[in-house]
């Protein structure tokens, strides 16, 4: 193999770092090959038995390739290196066909998103006409909506820290700039919904200072080419963050913005102080974010509420609920033992109870009772039983989560009410900003739902990319059979298919009063132990694992049932429904109506009305929402944006190849390559092919037509390559094995030709030197003889 590697030859090589590196051959002997890395200039030496770690490379242009579909080499190494080359040149966007890869620079280059850039990309119908940019993707979707009369959907996905939230805002800003609508207030209100929900739905995590802790789907409606309204759908708000978060993380932004934005008088009004004093805020020991001004963002929040026409009473209710949640977190209990040796609890922070009751418009004793006692409902009466310390803390946290999640749902509904469509609609552009695939040291119910959503979107992505591949084959009139490719249907079935999917088992167990997390786990083991995608631990652990498209993830089932049920006690709902604050009361009355329709009894009397359907669980509601989302997206023409995090430490303008490669694999970019490799991934225009391989023609062929030259070359190949290519209308489609054969033959002929040229030139030079020396000798002889003759 070494004889094929000549000096200066561009190659990919495996340095052992886990990713391919570009290099050039600088020395070749019979026993080894030396390669200089283009990454850091180091020299790597490979022995004769290690040459499998070195493969030929087609060099990239200095600035990289705008659309990687145009590259002849569409390997993992080429995709990764092209992204690096472009990133180093401050080109943060790259295409793979119609798919936009967006690498987060961790720095806002405002000049790249100015009005000039909006005008530059407006009405761009061809992606490659200009350098890759998120505005070009938005412009293409926008133009296709009008020209094709088809609803569009922009799917934005990627890991936390990849820039999904920022990408969503950039697309919305672009759409608002090119078609503001006749009613500019509606457009402005749609834009202002983003910072409002960002405050309430985003938080600092160890991976991202502004991580979205919920999924959102925004539909922007058009009529007569103008924006006329919008609709927002939210998915799976992370409720656990309201009451607990890890070290170096924060609760939702809005709490810190509230405390930094309020002046002394406002803080006194709500009984508030600094963030460090609140248990729900200080667990992560991270009160501030260097790149974020909470005081400034609070003013932006107030501006958004004003533009969205939130009344003064609504704003005050929002602040009261937020303040009450902080006071709730500071309620603590002490354990006592009564005469009968029973564990009892006492409230050790009555001031916080008084503040909560005041802010929420509740009776002090009513709230105190809900925190310390459980109500058992019978047909004709309610029985009170005291909590132990652990149950009381759980009750406190459950109330806090219910308050915040109810407020969040109300905010989404209120925004939808404000920006709703009041007239007929022609078409729409939807933007999906979904949480990325997650795999932590400990994964729970939330991660299972998130990863299930990513599996569904990955299936949607594969189906779409596969369709585009077939469309190109059809366009080029290839003889084509259906491509069989590895999809993730089996994993989707394992998690969600009825009747034995994991989420279905969880729902069944959630409706049995005596079921436990352990009984749920045992049932999963029994039904899925033989499934190749399901993993049962060897030791007695409370875990199971699933082989996702992005890798194996182990889930800890502790808390699964409680999180899935997520039932707020009827007496607590009843308490908040009777609040003196009418806005808060209405929030919980709506919840009470839903619960009543499912549970089959009246809250106030406790009497059963009739047998009703079981209350939907969190997973059931999420699965229904996800199914509806995929159905909606299927009816739209999709555009995919894959957001890439360049490094793990959030450093500006620094790209780590290992970090990017892992995401390319997890987000399905490399799956696109694999799908293409099942067909004919090597493709050349006839002109390109004829120019590169015309040297293989050995017989007389007098024809200048590129297609005829291509056909002639292919017809003279060995018969084993007959099925390795297909001829289209404008391109030749090949498999890698044929390209390797052609490259090998071309290399042999070029080397042979080079040797012939060298031999001829060397012979010519030697002959010229000989003639010159012979001529000189003859002259010397002539002169010498003349001299001798004169002497005589």
TrEMBL record:
Residues 626-648 are annotated as: Actin-binding. ATP binds at residues 158-165. Transmembrane segments: none annotated. GO terms for cellular component: actin-based cell projection; cytoplasm; membrane; myosin complex. GO terms for molecular function: actin filament binding; ATP binding; microfilament motor activity. PANTHER family: MYOSIN, UNCONVENTIONAL MYOSIN-XV. This is Myosin motor domain-containing protein. It comes from Adineta steineri.
């Amino acid at each position: 193999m070494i004889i094929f590697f000549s000096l200066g030859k561009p190659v990919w090589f495996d340095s052992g770092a886990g990713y391919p590196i570009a290099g050039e051959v600088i020395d070749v002997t019979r026993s080894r090959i030396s390669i200089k890395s283009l990454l850091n200039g180091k020299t790597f030496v490979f022995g004769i038995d290690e040459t499998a770690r070195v493969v030929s490379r087609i060099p990239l242009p200095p600035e990289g390739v705008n659309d990687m579909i145009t590259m002849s080499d569409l390997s993992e190494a080429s995709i990764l290196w092209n992204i690096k080359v472009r990133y180093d040149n401050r080109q943060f966007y790259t295409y793979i066909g119609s798919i936009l890869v967006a690498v987060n620079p961790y720095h806002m280059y405002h000049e790249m998103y100015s009005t000039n850039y909006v005008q530059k990309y407006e009405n761009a119908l061809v992606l490659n006409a200009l350098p890759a940019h998120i505005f070009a993707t938005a412009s293409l979707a926008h133009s296709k909506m009008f020209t094709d009369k088809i609803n569009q959907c922009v799917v934005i996905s990627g890991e936390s820290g990849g820039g999904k939230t920022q990408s969503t805002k950039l697309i919305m800003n672009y759409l608002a700039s090119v078609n503001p609508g006749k009613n500019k207030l509606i457009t402005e209100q749609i834009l202002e919904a983003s910072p409002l929900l960002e405050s309430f739905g985003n938080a600092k995590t160890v991976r991202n200072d502004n991580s979205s802790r919920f999924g959102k789907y925004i539909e922007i409606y058009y009529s007569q080419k103008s924006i006329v309204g919008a609709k927002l759908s939210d998915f799976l708000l992370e409720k656990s963050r309201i009451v607990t978060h890890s070290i170096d993380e924060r609760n939702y932004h809005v709490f810190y913005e509230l405390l930094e934005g309020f002046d002394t008088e406002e803080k006194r009004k709500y009984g508030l102080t600094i963030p460090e004093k609140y248990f729900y805020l200080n667990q992560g020991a991270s009160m501030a974010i260097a790149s974020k001004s909470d005081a400034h963002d609070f003013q932006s929040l107030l501006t958004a509420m004003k533009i969205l026409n939130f009344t003064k009473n609504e704003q005050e209710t929002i602040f009261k609920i937020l303040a009450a949640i902080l006071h709730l977190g500071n309620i603590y209990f002490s354990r006592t033992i009564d005469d009968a040796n029973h564990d009892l609890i006492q409230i050790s922070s009555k001031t916080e109870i008084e503040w909560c009751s005041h802010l929420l418009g509740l009776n002090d004793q009513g709230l105190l009772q809900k925190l310390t006692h459980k109500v058992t409902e019978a047909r004709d009466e309610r029985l009170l039983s005291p909590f132990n310390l652990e149950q009381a803390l759980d009750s406190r946290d459950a109330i806090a989560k219910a308050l915040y999640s109810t407020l969040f749902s109300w905010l989404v509904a209120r925004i939808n009410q404000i920006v709703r469509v009041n007239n007929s609609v022609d078409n729409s552009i939807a933007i999906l900003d979904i949480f990325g695939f997650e795999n932590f040291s400990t994964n729970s119910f939330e991660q299972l739902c998130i990863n299930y959503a990513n599996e569904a979107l990955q299936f949607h992505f594969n189906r779409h990319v596969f369709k585009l591949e077939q469309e190109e084959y059809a366009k080029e009139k290839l003889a084509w059979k259906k491509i069989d490719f590895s999809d993730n249907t089996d994993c989707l079935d394992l998690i969600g298919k009825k009747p034995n999917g994991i989420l279905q088992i969880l729902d069944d167990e959630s409706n049995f009063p005596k079921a436990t997390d352990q009984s749920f786990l045992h049932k999963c083991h029994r039904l899925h132990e033989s499934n190749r995608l399901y993993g049962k631990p060897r030791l007695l652990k409370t875990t199971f694992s699933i082989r996702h498209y992005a890798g194996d993830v182990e889930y800890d089932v502790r808390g699964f049932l409680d999180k899935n049920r997520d039932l707020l006690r009827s007496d607590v709902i009843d308490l908040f429904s009777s609040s003196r604050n009418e806005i808060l009361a209405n929030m919980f009355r709506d919840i009470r109506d839903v619960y009543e329709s499912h549970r089959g009894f009246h809250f106030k009397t406790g009497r059963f009305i009739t047998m009703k359907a079981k209350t939907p669980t969190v997973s059931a509601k999420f699965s229904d929402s996800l199914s509806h989302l995929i159905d909606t997206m299927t009816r739209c023409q999709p555009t995919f944006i894959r957001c890439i995090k360049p490094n793990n430490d959030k450093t500006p303008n620094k790209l780590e190849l290992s970090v990017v490669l892992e995401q390319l694999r997890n987000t399905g970019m490399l799956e696109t390559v694999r799908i293409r490799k099942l067909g004919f991934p090597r493709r050349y225009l006839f002109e390109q092919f004829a120019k590169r391989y015309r040297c293989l023609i050995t017989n007389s062929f007098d024809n200048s037509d590129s297609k005829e030259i291509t056909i002639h070359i292919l017809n003279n190949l060995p018969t084993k390559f007959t099925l390795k290519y297909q001829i289209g209308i404008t391109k030749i489609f090949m498999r890698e094995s044929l390209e390797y054969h052609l490259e090998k033959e071309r290399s042999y002929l070029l080397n042979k030709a080079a040797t012939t040229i060298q031999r001829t030139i060397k012979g010519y030079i030697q002959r010229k030197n000989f003639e010159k020396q012979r001529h000189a000798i003859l002259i010397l002889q002539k002169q010498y003889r003349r001299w001798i003759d004169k002497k005589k």
